[in-house]
Amino acid sequence: MFTVDNRAVGPHSGESGAADHERLVLEARDVEFDWANLPFHYVPNEPLPTHVLNVLHLLLPAGEEFFVEVFKKTLPLIKDDQLRLDVQGFIGQEAMHSQAHSGVLAHFEAQGVDVTPYTDQIRWLFGKLLAEKPGRNPRQRHRWLLEQVSFIAAIEHYTAVLGEWILNSPQLDVVGTDPVMLDMLRWHGAEEVEHKAVAFDTMKHLRAGYWRQVRAQLAVTPVMLLLWIRGVRFMYTVDPLLAPGTKPRWRDYVRSARRGLTPGPWRLIRVVGDYYKPGFHPSQLGGLERAVDYLAVSPAARASH
Question: Which InterPro entries match (predicted)?
């Protein structure tokens, strides 16, 4: 018999962010973006920041489809009404994120830029390696579901941090980043901040356990880093504006991070460390007020109503 922990839902009473967490209603916004005028280097004259952000488009269509499929399987197991509503909102938002990033990939294809050598590998990762394995008994399937939820909770920790960063990245505006792309990234980032606790709360509710939480993050962190590095390198190889053989350099990343055009490493290291604390909850990350404020003014989000 599979059991759940109702006490694990949401931040503990009295913790920072608890009130915001409890009052927030997650909704999927039916956004649309027009990429007809998108320059290939949408961070002007900055290929490295552009391609650091492009890795999101490479990873997320398949990744967030995987999130949706996994969390659909959790719904019958959830005994808390509020958490069930949160998961339903999470599923709707993640489905829209996948669709929006797929639109960027379609734009690349229309421009003659073939990214399938990389995205096919990502689809194998989520569609085969991390997918449910056939022939397992119910207990084995449940254990694997807990592993999947824990992996997603670990990934969502990163997406929440990246979402908070993109919402507080004024230098991207200063250098003239394409406004449609910036709106898409900030809309997505804001929704990641909105639902940052859902996967974590589901993991706790289903009694995945602290050590599974830690193990998942230990696995996710190096894989995410590797995928991002490989993704940036791949985008350099298909970039029609760069001279053949041009490669990204670590000093270019350090320079762009110092200028506020890419996330800095120290922030990521600190928040990853927080995830291993037994009393950690995503509500401690903050950023929700800024996310809600941005969604109120986002051109795409406003047009969806």
Answer: UCP07580
